[in-house]
From TrEMBL:
Keywords assigned: Coiled coil, Cytoplasm, Kinase, Magnesium, Metal-binding, Phosphotransferase system, Sugar transport, Transferase, Transport
Database matches in SMART domains: GAF (SM00065)
Sequence ranges assigned to domain GAF in this UniProt record: 24-170
Location(s) in or outside the cell: Cytoplasm
UniProt KW NADP keyword: no
A single GO molecular function term of this UniProt record: metal ion binding
Species of provenance: Methylobacterium brachythecii
NCBIfam families documented for this protein: PTS_I_fam
Cofactor list: Mg(2+)
Pfam families the record matches: GAF, PEP-utilisers_N, PEP-utilizers, PEP-utilizers_C
Protein name: phosphoenolpyruvate--protein phosphotransferase
One GO cellular component term: cytoplasm
Catalysis: reaction(s): L-histidyl-[protein] + phosphoenolpyruvate = N(pros)-phospho-L-histidyl-[protein] + pyruvate
Chief site of localization: cytoplasm
Length: 754
């Protein structure tokens, strides 16, 4: 049976009139279902809204029993309506009663209907409800009718998202506004309560229904052409976008910009009566809904490319430039972003920030390092984060558990507020330990130092009572800059570091770039395994001018004071001796030109490549000190990508194999009298640090927030007792099992805070 004359355009015009009528929300919704039924020539039209308790409630109907409105509720997986809500795709059936998912509620009177067409009500890929039409006859709905219903569904979705319908069902909130709890991965410890600020605010489409379809087609075509040209120009220039997207990403976006199917769907949406921006929003919402439900990680990753392209089109259509909305930040801002670089985070006013939520970014990413340095709770790998919430939504970030709560209930908000108060009291207790020496109960001295990478980190020295900077990451200065820092700029930074630390020791690591640390102004190399590729000291030795500039700046900045330089990613003793040779040549150059040299210059190696475990005696004799980079050491030791959630947690750093590797380093360094520090993540976790003390390590470097908890643990243990425990448990751990349960049980029995 054909659709009524006029099709989707006529329906949208009538809907626009209905939306403008000064009537109640229920009266407006009742009028809308009548209009839809008449347009599609259906005997039934019903709207189901997904409630905050994950049930689908009948909000309006034409043709079914009106007494069932706000009475009938379906589970989110119940019947054909539930199937549409879950799959987020239209469903058209000539005989619904023969479908295995068919079920009906007697109070609705729908058992007499056979033909069925349902479409999801979508917004940003999230299902808000279902729109259904039905007929008694066994009929097939046309493509035009399906298109009309999908177009209408977008208008209804915006009506739901606005909150207009919430008052119709006491105690119920729509899916667009219901509380959401999501788990990701912890990036930076702490609890933040505040309101959402989208790092790249989603374009809100306010004009949905076209006045002139021809004009909207022209606007869409012009926007597509402009975006294509801009992307083509970027690809040809080879420039990065924003924080340095690679050429491969640009090529992918360009491919989508020329995809005929994507463009055809947008044109069809405009032809149905939507504005150009509403058409882009509708098609991308459909794409997002489908791709979020894919198990293939490649397809899910492509969602970001499509989102990027759709946002470019929307910004062009509404005349809005890309921006991060810094000026509109509230006092208690929680940043929500797909991804961010450290420079972007530093652009925000620190005093207003209460947390960070990312769709991407692992615990060892530089954004995580900067968040920890700033003391901002952060959570990463929150799927669909930017579509889960709107600007201004209440949100809670639990950086310890790796969880977020969007639009939390008063009970949850109260519980987290109390937890935040408890943490604040605990921090006060840690601050009381600031000047207490880090001695075990059997008087073993443990050195506690800070990891740093920005000048802002250095303020934590006085707050924590740390003994110095055990690791200063110089690459962060390069990553937050818009161009390569000059020799003078580098020297100025290092002078500021030495001025801020006074007489406290500072270990400065040379530039560790490559792998996942890409400078925005340097072309990214295409490598099969970037973590195993051209990075860190390998770049420095292959491009000695880069290393020489940095070393000269360090030597000048440290004039007359001790200097400790550490080289990252060293795999052989020969690499270290080559780097040491460059230092000696730079010292000779400065000496010839009358510069004051450091009073003492010690050179060290970061032990993070497993090959050094088999050269540990030699490297300990050659180097002045060693630092264990446990993050990379564990990654390489177990062949596990630490940013891959499928395997990152497969091996515990407290398992027998890992602890035996750590023991080799501690024992051999002690034999030759070479100082050794642990500066990776596990050095800042009380239970892991306790195990490392038992292995013989006596110096650690960690984030500022870890100093207090680790010191409290140190003050509660006897080093000899822990060593005996480790010896016993390692002797038994022949199957690769973790010592974590035994260590946790030991700590609990003795009241050791871990």
């Amino acid at each position: 049976m054909p659709a009524a004359p006029g099709g989707p355009r006529l329906l949208l015009r009538r809907l626009r009139e209905a939306m403008a009528e000064p009537v109640s929300a229920q009266a407006r919704l009742d009028r809308i279902v009548v209009l839809i039924a008449a347009n599609v020539i259906a005997e039934v039209c019903s709207v189901y809204v997904l409630r905050d308790d994950n049930t689908l409630e009948l909000f309006a109907t034409e043709g079914l029993n009106r007494d069932a409105v706000h009475i009938t509720r379906l589970r989110a997986d119940e019947g054909l309506v539930g199937l549409i809500a879950n799959q987020a795709e239209p469903l058209s059936l000539s005989d619904a009663q023969s479908h295995p998912n068919f079920s009906y509620r007697p109070e609705t009177g729908e058992e007499i209907y056979h033909a069925f067409l349902g479409v999801p009500l979508l917004r940003a890929g999230n299902t808000l409800g279902v729109l259904v039409v039905q007929n008694k006859t066994y009929r097939v709905y046309s493509d035009e009718e399906i298109e009309a219903l999908q177009t209408t569904a977008m208008v209804l979705s915006e009506m739901i998202a606005s909150g207009e319908l919430q008052a119709l069902a006491p105690g119920a909130g729509s899916a667009a506004r219901r509380p959401v709890s999501q788990r990701g991965v912890p990036l930076a410890d702490g609890i933040g309560l505040g309101h959402v600020v989208l790092h790249e605010p989603r374009i809100i489409v306010k004009r949905l229904i076209a006045e002139s379809v021809e004009l909207e087609v022209e606007r869409l075509e012009a926007a597509i052409e402009d975006v294509r040209s801009a992307i083509d120009e970027l690809v040809e220039r080879g420039d990065g976008i924003g924080s340095g997207e690679s050429r491969e990403v640009l090529e992918t976006v360009r491919m989508f910009a020329h995809d005929k199917g994507w463009l055809r769907r947008m044109r069809e949406a405009v032809q149905s009566g939507l504005t150009a921006e509403a058409a882009v929003e509708r098609v991308q919402s459909d794409n997002r809904a489908r791709m979020l439900r894919q198990s293939d990680p490649y397809l899910r990753d492509r969602l970001h490319d499509l989102d990027d392209l759709a946002n470019r089109l929307l910004r062009r259509l509404v005349g809005q430039e890309a921006g991060n909305g810094i000026a509109a930040m509230p006092d208690n801002a929680i940043l929500v972003a797909r991804s961010m670089g450290p420079a972007a985070l530093l652009d925000y006013e620190r005093a207003n920030l209460r947390g960070v939520v990312l769709e991407e970014g692992g615990p060892t990413s530089h954004i995580a390092i900067v968040a920890r340095a700033l003391g901002i709770p952060a959570v990463g790998e929150i799927a669909n984060a930017t579509a889960l919430c709107d600007s201004g939504d209440a949100i809670i970030v639990d950086g310890a558990a790796g969880e977020i709560q969007v639009r939390p209930t008063p009970e949850i908000e109260s519980a987290y507020a109390e937890q935040a108060r408890l943490r604040a009291r605990r921090q006060e207790q840690y601050r009381a330990l600031r000047d207490v020496p880090a001695l075990t109960r059997d008087k073993v001295k443990i050195g506690l130092n800070l990891n740093a990478g920005l000048l802002i980190d250095l303020s934590h020295l006085g707050e924590t009572g740390a003994e110095g900077i055990g690791l200063f990451r110089t690459e962060l200065q390069f990553m937050v800059a818009q161009r390569m820092p000059s020799a003078a700029e580098q020297q100025q930074l290092y002078e500021a570091v030495f001025a801020a630390t006074g007489d406290l020791p500072v270990t400065i690591r040379t530039l560790d770039i490559g792998g996942d640390k890409i400078l925005p102004y340097m072309p990214a190399l295409e490598e099969e395994n970037p973590a195993l590729g051209w990075r860190a000291i390998r770049i420095g030795l292959d491009r000695p001018a880069l290393l020489r500039v940095q070393l000269r700046a360090l030597l000048k900045a440290a004039a007359g004071r001790p200097l400790k330089i550490m080289f990252p990613m060293v795999a052989t003793v020969e690499e270290f001796t080559r780097a040491r040779g460059i230092v000696e040549r730079e010292k000779a150059h400065l000496r010839r030109h009358g510069y004051v040299l450091p009073s003492d210059c010690k050179l060290g190696v970061m032990v993070e490549v497993p090959s050094l475990l088999f050269q540990i005696d030699e490297i300990a004799r050659e180097a002045d000190f060693l630092s264990v980079g446990s993050n990379d050491l564990m990654q390489f030791l177990f062949a596990v990508d630490r940013d891959n959630r499928r395997v990152a947690d497969r091996f515990d750093p407290l398992c027998g194999a890992a602890l035996r590797a750590f023991r080799v380093i501690a024992d051999r360094a002690e034999v030759v009298g070479c100082p050794v520090t642990v500066c990776g993540e596990i050095g800042g976790r009380p239970l892991e640090t306790m195990a490392l003390i038992g292995l013989g390590f006596r110096n650690f470097s960690m984030s500022p927030a870890a100093i207090g908890p680790v010191k409290a643990m140190v003050l509660s243990i006897e080093a000899d007792e822990v060593r005996a425990l480790i010896d016993t448990e390692l002797a038994k751990a022949t199957d690769g099992a973790s010592l974590r349960p035994a260590l946790a049980s030991f700590a609990k029995a003795r009241g050791i805070p871990v």
